[in-house]
Amino acid sequence: MENEKMAHRFLERKVLLPTIAAVFVLGGLTVYLFPTLKVIVPLRLKYTRNKSPRMYLVPKDRVVTDGVDSDSGYEYTSGNLRFRVPLQAIRTFDSEYAKAFVFADGKSVIVAGQKDGDGVLSALLGDDPEQAEAMRRFWGEENLRSEYAAVKTCLHATPDKGGIFSSRTELMRLPSMLLLKAAYSPLGDVIYQYETKRFRGFQFGNPQQGRAVFVYLFDMSDRLYRIKLSALDQKEIDLLLASVVITPRG
After folding, report:
1. pLDDT digits (tens, 9 = 90+) for 122-133
2. What pTM did the predictor assign?
3. Residue partners of 28: CB distance under 8 A and separation at least 6
4. Same domain, residue pair 170 and 242
5. What is the separation of C-alpha 73 from the centre of its chain, rounded to a whole number of angstroms?
6. Which of residues 17, 32, 47 is at a domain's end?
7. Both 109 and 188 in a single domain?
8. What is the per-residue burial (b if ≥16 Cβ within 10 Å, else e) of 102-139?
């Protein structure tokens, strides 16, 4: 009888020990992963695919023809940016930082230059050298080497990029990247990226799905040009992009 009780207690202990061990392992993992989960979970809850589908968009590569015939469409100039579209303007409006070209059938092109101190780099680096150095260490030197690189980094960030095996630095900078990306999300439900010998940039929106498309062009000196194209089709947009010539600033 005594032997049976001892055997029973032994079997209970054999079952209990693995259970206790599992609890300790899970507890240890929770403690180890808590800082990671503390970042990941709020991001996933804040930016769900249903509520914030555009936060999961990343730029798709799109090819731009390098140059067009001189007789393709009509030539227009805004500042030091020159382009062509197969449309004749019926009105133009000019201001200090932007110029609008209005065509028939509700079509228009608005070109806005970059103001001094405007942009992602200025917002992140500020005027303090110590702050700038700290931000470069935090974001990574390669991500802040230019305005274009900073914008591209933000646009490629998505809420699901952070994982339990991501580095602490990657996780800590993801919320700020997404915060900046949110400023671009209203511009369109698809993002294309271009790289040519003359410029690099992004197109926000598909003209087949909405009237307005936004193009952000960066010249080779990293100067930004924002272009809003209303009611133009993709063929007309492609001609504009293929014809872009940016003359150096004097």
Report:
1. 888 888 888 888
2. 0.81
3. none
4. yes
5. 32
6. 47
7. yes
8. bbeeebbbbbbbbeeeebbbeebbeeeeeeeeebbeeb
